[in-house]
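Suppose you are handed only these lines of text.
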Amino acid sequence: MTRLGANRLASVPKDVQTPGYDRANCGVGIVHLGLGAFHRAHQALCTDIAMAAGGGDWKIIGVSMRNEQIAADLNDQDGLYTLIVKGSGAPKAQIIGSIARALCARTQADKVLEALSDPAVRIVTTTVTEKGYGIDRATGGVDPSLPIIARDLAGEGAPEGVIGLLVAALAERRARGIAPFTVLCCDNLPDNGAFVRGGLIDFAKRRDAALGRWIAANVACPSSMVDRITPAQTPATRDLARALTGAEDVLAIETEPFSQWVIEDHFPTGRPQWEAAGVIFAADVAPFEKMKLRLLNGSHSLIAYMGALLGKKYVRDVMDDPKLEALVGRHLEAACATLPSMPNMDLAQYRADLIERFRNPNIAHQTCQIAADGSEKMPQRIFAPALDALRADQPLRPFAFATALWIWFCRDDDSQSCQLNDPRAQHLKKAARQATPHMIFAEFEKIAGMLPKELASSCVWRAEVLSVLTELTHRPAQQVIQAESEKF
Ligand code: CS2
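From them, the structure of the protein bound to D-mannonic acid can be written out as follows.
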C-alpha cells in the first residue's frame, strides 16, 4: 500500500476532498505549537478552508513539543494527512494540506526558533493542553518550580518550553526590528488570551524588564474558544483511512461533524479568512468560553469520572445508561444556570446537541483520556460554576457530586479501569487516600490554587461533597452513582 504524500493526491477517490488551492503557491504564515489530533481536526482544517476560499500565505509549520516521530511522519507525508468525519451517515474522508512541514521542539529547538523569527510568520497558534504552558494560575505568571520553566529561565541552550520559545523568538524579532506575531491560544482555558499573555510578560520580565514591557505593549493575544470532539487515533482509524483513500496514513484522525471556533478579532499583522470555515469573530469571547467550558467540558469530566469508576471505556457507553445520562442532564442544567444571558445563543438547543454529540455511536472517545489532568481541568469546569452557583443560591449538588467522584478517582485504586494521570498525581493520591472523608476534604482544600477559597470555606459546599464522599467510603461507586440518579 502506498503511503499518503503529494504524489498520491491526484489518485485518491473522487469523493475524498483534497486541498482546494495550489499548495506550492501558498507560503507559510503560521507556526502551530502542539501537533496533536485536535489541531489536525480543527485549526489546520479551518486554515485549509480559508486558503481554498481566499488564498494567502497562511500555511502552517507544525511543531510537536516532545514527539519527534509525529513530526517525522508528517514530513514523510509532505505535511498531508486524512481527516475522517464520523456522523450518523457514512464516514467521510478529506485530505488536509495546510501544514507545510513539521518540527519537534525537544530535538530541533533552533529550527523552531528560526521559524518563529521569520518575518513571514504572523501568527502562532497553540494547543499544548492546560498544563503545557507552565503558568501558575494563582499568580498568573510562570511557575519557576517546574523543571522546563526553570531550565528555560536559566537560559542554558535553546528553550524547549512553550513560553520560553515564544519569548526567545519575540526577543529576536524585537532585536531585528520585525513586528511581533500574534499569539492565539487554542486551549480550553478561561480567558486564554490573557492567560498566555500573563505568562509571556512574566517570563520576559524575569530575564529582561525592557523586553517584558515591549511584549506588554506590542504583542496581541486574542482569546478564543475551540470545540470539536476528537479522540486519539486508534489502529481502526488508520484502517478506515486506508479503505477510504487507498493510501497508508499513519497520521489519520477521526472526528465528529460539529466544529466551533470563536475568536476575538485582534490580529495586527493580519489573519487568514477563517470566516470561510464558519469561524465566528466576536468582540468578547468570554461568554462562549464559559458556556463551552462549563457545559461541554464540565459534563465531559463528570462522564469521565463516572466512566472510570464504573469501568465504562467510552463516553458513548456512559451515555448508553439512562441513569448516567440523567446525571449528565442534571449537571448540564445546573451549569447552564450559572451562565450569563446569551441573547444570540439557544442554550436549550446547545444542551440537546451536546447530549447527541456525547452519544455519537461512531466516536470512540475514551473516558480515560478525558479523566487525565483533572487538577488542570476541574477549576474552570466545575469549581468556577460551583462558586457562581453558591453565590446565586443555586443547586450545588451536581458540582459537589462531580468533585467527589474526581476525588475518589484520585485514590488510584488498582480496581479502577484507568489510572490517575495528572501532573499533581502524587499529591492528589495522598490526599484522596486519607482515612476519613473529613481528612480527605481537608487535604484537597490545602492544594494551592485549586479550590476557590470562598467555595472551600462554604458549609453548604463542604456538606455536599462530604455526603457523597461518605457514601463512597461505605458502598461501591456503582451503588452510589445509581442512588444519586434516583434522587431527582
Ligand atoms: C475533553 C476535551 O479531554 C478533555 O478533557 O473534555 O478535549 C473535549 O473533547 C474538547 O474540548 C471538545 O471540544
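What can we learn from it? The mean pLDDT is 97. The longest helix spans residues 286-310.
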